[in-house]
Amino acid sequence: MNTFKKIYCDFDGTVSKKDSVNEFLRLFADEKWLEIEERWARGEISSQVCLKKQTALLPQMDEAMLENYIRNIELSEGFIEFYEQMKQKGVEIVILSDGYDMFIKKTLQNHGLDVKYFANTLTYKDGKFDVEFYNTNPACSRNSGTCKCAQVGEKDFCYVGDGVSDFCIAKKAKKVFAKSSLKKYCDEAGVKYIEFADFRDILDAFRKGEKQNAAN
After folding, report:
1. Where are the domains of the chain?
2. Residue 129 belongs to what H/E stretch?
3. 6-215 in CATH: which number?
4. Would you give the distance in Å from CA 106 to the centre of its chain?
5. CA angle 203–170–132, rounded 5-degree value
6. Where are the alpha helices (DSSP H) in the chain?
7. What is the C-alpha separation between 74 and 31, in angstroms, rounded?
8. pLDDT in tens, 115-125
9. Is the pTM of this model over 0.85?
10. Mean of the per-residue pLDDT values for the chain?
11. Beta strands 116-125 and 92-100, pairing class
């Protein structure tokens, strides 16, 4: 359990309490974003097409409103403690997200966390939004904006996630922590996993692993 050099984590709904992109769209975008989301969930459109269309539904917004939203993005219970303990052990945490990089960057900064991340680039200029994709992979089965599998170089890694964008990479991880849609997928696909509600559960699992190693 504690031999991993890197632990890869999804952001929205995993590191963050809520899906920061969906919550942003729910609060500010035209409600058509839900129809687009459903088409993506059914596999009818790629995540790139989905997020491009959804971002286009956002209204013009002043910077103060945007910053206020990001300031209120909450981290999962136990994540800061998990980050600090892994840092002490020399284990690197890397965030892999098919969401907005701006939300991740500023949320981490707000909490003083130095975590490497890969995500889609949200641009904001003159009150208007757009999204660009610089972490794509032509071989990606879902044509994701950020292909998570392409960002992982090692064979032995731990993955923590909760959603559709985590399905593919979960099959390749040596250890998986799953909840929500990812948990359901793992059950159906026969992928072994440890269920978690937040990072306090993951911390407990790592501590149990340490005790077992010590006993052996």
Report:
1. 6-215
2. strand 128-132
3. 3.40.50.1000
4. 15
5. 100
6. 20-28, 32-41, 47-56, 63-71, 79-88, 101-110, 167-170, 180-189, 199-215
7. 24
8. 999 999 999 99
9. yes
10. 94
11. parallel
